[in-house]
Amino acid sequence: MKTIKKINKCACGKTKDVNGNCDGSHTKRFMGYKIFTLMTIALITFFSIQSFSLIEKETIDVSSAKIVWKAYKVTGSHEGTISLKSGKLNFINDELIGGDFKVDMNSILCTDLSGDYKNQLEGHLKSEDFFNSKNHPNSTLTFTKVKSINKNSYNIDAEITIKGKKETISFVISVYGNKATGVLKIDRTKFDIKYGSGSFFAGLGDNLIYDEFDLIIDINF
Fold first, then answer.
1. Residue 10: what pLDDT?
2. Are residues 119 and 185 in the same domain?
3. What is the pLDDT of residue 120?
4. Is residue 41 part of a domain?
5. How far is CA 63 from the centre of its chain?
6. Does 3 fall in a domain?
7. Which residue of 4, 22, 47, 71 lies most exposed, with the fewest beta carbons within 10 A?
8. Residue 163 zone, left/alpha/beta (φ > 0; ψ -120 to 50; rest)
9. Residue 113 bridge partners (DSSP)
């Protein structure tokens, strides 16, 4: 008669103890690990959601936003306005952390001239000599780094796109309540706007136009 050998294994495949019992300790260890893993995932998810929810995206009121441009030449200067299409500033606990803007290049106006001189300058600024707004109707500005200077002021590094060309720019922005202000100095030649530039053309005399122009920003959100 064939002897049947007693299998000293638990149903799960683990070896029984000396008394032939399966105490399930390995199962307990597995369950403890599983619970710990699930709790860890839950905590990570919770804090991720919390961090995300703390970001406040404040939409710019484009109807009241004021952007003034100032350009300079040997014989004087000109200035005017340009309009925002859209924009927002991002905050965490009332501290600025980011922002982005889209500018309507077809909205360029000159405010220090009138009549034919005003129309001529506005048309020239929108032409291929300058911003070519027909083919490049939008310019954009996106914050890439924000560093607090004090309670209300921040150093900003940003990516600016004009005429399809991207460059980096740095400036300071101040935030008071629901208002933000700043001044950007932009070198137009970096965006292939060389008309009247002494950096590229000699003998311009009184027709020389300086490479840098200013944007003065005053916005509400």
1. 60
2. yes
3. 98
4. yes
5. 21
6. no
7. 4
8. left
9. none
**Domain count for the chain:** 2
Q: Which string of b and e fits 74-112 if b means at least 16 CB within 10 Å? A: eeeebbbebbbbebebbbeeeebbbbbbbbbbebbebee
What does the pLDDT read at residue 25? 55
Q: Which stretches of the chain score pLDDT less than 50? A: 2, 4-5, 50
Q: What pLDDT, on the 0 to 100 scale, is given for residue 44?
A: 61
Tell me: do 72 and 172 sit in the same domain: yes
Q: What domain range includes position 44?
A: 8-55
> Whose structure tokens read 């683990």?
14
Q: Return the structure tokens found at 10.
A: 């638990």
Q: Length of the chain, please? A: 221
Q: Is residue 1 part of a domain?
A: no
